[in-house]
Amino acid sequence: MCNKIVHTKLIQKTKLSTKYHKHHYFSVAPMLHLTDRHCRYFHRLLTKKALLYTEMITTNAIIYGKNNYLTYNEEEHPIALQLGGNEPKILANCAKMVQKAGYDEINFNIGCPSKRAQNGQFGAYLMRESSLVADCIKSMQDVVTIPITIKTRLGVDNDDSYEFLIDFIDRIVTNSQCRLFIIHARKAWLSGLNPKQNRKIPPLNYSYVYQLKKEFPQLTIIINGGIKTINEANQHLYYLDGVMIGREAYQNPQLLINVDLKIFNKNNLIINPIIAVQKMFPYIARELKKGTYLHHITKHMLGIFQSVPGACKWRRYLSTNSYKKGADISIIKKALEFIINKIDYL
């Protein structure tokens, strides 16, 4: 099995266009309200090789938002920004701003099924507007040199046939230079299901994604949806160009410690979750001085000791006390005391 995985990697490296990062081989999915800059900094400590994505940021937020939504830490590279919108000229203007900010890629969201996205006619709504999607992609490609990629679903509502998916991909490939597609292997219900339900209720259909790669061997096809372990990721990598994991990586970030070795065949200096938490201390200290609240950072670290004795007490203490006025690193150090059998990690 190991030989087969290595052989597959060598083949895939020759297939990937040079303008795409090799880090697409494994990535952490964009997750709204979750993959902010504090989360990404923590994840980057756990894996040096995986590609990290921002949460979806709309064109309106970039242009009119009170906050600077393009802010990130230099340590997060390679990092891609996921963009939501539907107006080619506005997307092009935002793309220039994203490139100037130093991001490595722009990912166009064609998968979000939320009411907000539907009302704004972006996200999964655009799966029925493939010509407009191609125009949006081309408008961005005309003004930037970083890759423009797409994250999408298998279909929407009753438009969920394989023929619908093929037609959608074909129109975009024909009318733009987009050559990398991240496919969430579920369709989206635009009515009747909320975003959380859309992540679980529509059945997974990995076979469509595999077949898509056979139909378009020249494309880079990344699979997303329902993948929970490194072993599952490696199984998909037999057939596809990359794997993206979302909720599992967020809820159980220990998974990311194994990515560099078991996916990229590279050693990782972070060998256990205790060291990962301690490595966050300098970053947290800097952020606290800037006025960042402790819980804005520690909420992303709650799952790091999943299945470890004392994990429940770690989460409870951190959740209860990180919100308090003046909360600092001493709260994290105290929470670490609840993790028993620490010698197993050192």
3D structure, described in words:
- This protein has 346 residues and is α/β, with parallel strands linked by helices.
- It has 2 domains: 2-262, TIM Barrel, CATH 3.20.20; 273-345, Four Helix Bundle (Hemerythrin (Met), subunit A) (Up-down Bundle).
- It is 43% helix and 11% strand.
- The protein contains 18 helices and 9 strands.
- The protein has helices spanning 2-15, 37-46, 59-64, 88-101, 115-119, 130-141, 162-175, 195-198, 206-215, 230-236, 247-251, 254-257, 259-262, 273-279, 281-290, 294-298, 311-321, 329-336, and strands at 26-28, 51-53, 57-58, 79-84, 105-110, 148-152, 180-184, 220-224, 242-245.
- An 8-stranded parallel β-barrel has the order 1-2-4-5-6-7-8-9, surrounded by 5 helices.
- α7 (162-175) links the parallel β6 and β7 (180-184).
- α4 (88-101) packs across α6 (130-141) and α6 (130-141) runs parallel beside α7 (162-175).
- The longest helix is centred in the first third of the chain and has 14 residues, at 2-15.
- The chain is globular and about 55 Å long.
- The chain starts with a helix and ends in a 10-residue tail after the last helix.
- Mean pLDDT is 91; it is low at 1-19.
Shape: globular
Query: How many helix segments?
Result: 18
CATH topology of the largest domain: TIM Barrel
Beta strands, count: 9
CATH-defined architecture of the largest domain = Alpha-Beta Barrel
Give the N-to-C terminal Cα separation.
30 Å
Average pLDDT reading: 91
Secondary-structure element order, N to C: HEHEEHEHEHHEHEHHEHEHHHHHHHH
The count of domains is 2
Low-confidence stretches: 1-19
Strand content: 5-15%
Decide which structural class fits the backbone: alpha/beta
Radius of gyration, in Å, reads: 20 Å
Q: Level of helix content?
A: 40-55%
CATH superfamily of the largest domain: Aldolase class I
Keywords: Flavoprotein, FMN, NADP, Oxidoreductase, RNA-binding, tRNA processing, tRNA-binding
Domain DUS-like FMN-binding: 28-332
Site (Interacts with tRNA): 109, 196, 199, 315
Cofactor: FMN
